[in-house]
Amino acid sequence: MSVISTTICFIDDIQSVVDGISKHISWERHGITVCGTAINGEDGLNLITSSKPDIIVTDIRMPKLDGLELTRRVKELLPRSKVILMTGFSDFEYAKQAVQLGAFNFITKPFSLAHIEEIVVKAKEEIEALRNQEHHIADLEQRVQESMPFLRQELFAWLLHHKVNEQEAKQRWEYVKPDLEPRHLLVMILEIDGFDEKYRNSPMNELELARFALKNITEETIALYTRGLVFRDSANRLVAVLNAPLSDSAAAIAEACCHHVSVYTSLTVSIGIGRIVSYIHDLFASYDQALHALSYHFYTGGNAVISYEEVANTEMSLPRSIRSAEQEMVYAIQSGNVSQAITTLDHILDEFKDRSPLPKPEYFISLYYELAYMMLRAIQEKVPLNELADLSSIVREGRVSSERSLADMRRVLHHIVTLGCEHIENQSRSAAVKIIQEAIQYVKSNLDRDISLSACAKAVHLSPSYFAGLFKKVTGMAFSHYVTQIRIEEAKRLLLEDRPIQEIAESLGYAERRYFSDVFKKYTQMTPSEFKQAHLDNNFPLQKEGVRE
Description:
Layout: E1 6-11, H1 15-23, E2 32-38, H2 41-51, E3 55-59, H3 67-77, E4 82-87, H4 92-101, E5 105-108, H5 113-161, H6 166-176, E6 183-192, H7 195-199, H8 204-223, E7 228-234, E8 237-243, H9 250-264, E9 269-273, E10 277-279, H10 283-294, H11 297-300, E11 305-307, H12 308-311, H13 323-334, H14 338-353, H15 361-380, H16 389-397, H17 406-445, H18 453-459, H19 464-475, H20 479-496, H21 501-507, H22 513-524, H23 528-537
Parallel strand pairs: 1-2, 1-3, 3-4, 4-5, 9-11
Antiparallel strand pairs: 6-8, 6-9, 6-10, 7-8
Helix pairs in contact: 2-3, 3-4, 5-6, 8-9, 13-14, 13-15, 14-17, 15-17, 17-19, 20-23
């Protein structure tokens, strides 16, 4: 803080007195500057008017204007200046009158320079004490003004989140003086759509810039219609408190905010609007209503305005008449039928989405978990749990929050169905391969018998029809064709060992040699004897077999 010099002037009709006290005391060492002297009251008043000294030392008896009148004039002109009167003993009554008029002190003549110096210094100390006090008060007032935006935000946080007393609300309102009327107010809550996805890995300055832009656009848009104040409510939300507009609806203002945000930034916002309240102590009700309305952006997916009036009457319980559809979905998943499972899932979701009024978003959040874990349990019945880590992770990470929409929920559930059906299909394929491998082993172990499809199906505990389809799916050929092919391959091996043809036929389940030869020729284009001779002569390639169609 800079040091302000204290100024002083001396007025007396005796020149030697004026010169003595102005020149023979080192006023500068006290931080006091002599701004002038005068030898009569009239000149003294002119000096005081022009230089406005902090301290005036004046005689009482002077020509043209006495000290009493001068004191009266000084108190009117410079009420903060200190007047010190010099008086003779006979003028003592005058001096008391001057003190009553507001003079700081008086000195009786004759006096010493040390005495007048002491009194002047005391006057200066009082002046400085007053200056310091005023500076302190001004500093406090400045700090209060600088903190006023924060105090206003604190006031609104208190009003919006608590049910408050009307009188206390009024007192605090009058203290911070928001630029709003305290009556006919409503609350809008703006939420940045997809906030987590947009800013999860963004630097803080980018996030702050986006918040600043959103707040600025919202304030400027509201100002086009009515008075309002905008504050940050959370990381991804702003709350606007505004006086109810006289002509345009609050929904129109909110629509304009949505439009301007989407035009001037890369963001979109969802806005919930509460009802108008009559006085500030009811603002918490409008805030709760706006928050409830905002939750319905679950259906819109973002960039939309929802008024509490639109969703106020949704306190209905929804009948659960779709258990059969849920069971149908489970069957479709367990059979690996992706398209049927998704069609049934969409039917379940649309059954409630198309109702009027719309159910609370909380219902769908509960439905998400019910369906997700129903799917997971159905899949776990077909696939070992240790193979479903990815699916369990999707169920957990796909949890529905206030930022997610119905479309998000649908996408996650579709993903669970698709991935789950893939797991079941892979598991079924693996199980089928094991069964068919067991069937093939059965065939190879019983080549000397009459191997029928029914007998093999029974050996692997399947129905003949299901086994026939499964065998064709895994091996790519019909069961009977496969059995014949295995027998022919074994026959070729035995022929090259120079085993008798009749013996070979019997060992492979053919009772008649002729029938065996016909089958062999059909598959290899030569009789068993020709095959044997060709290979013995090394005149025929080893692989020339295949059924002619």
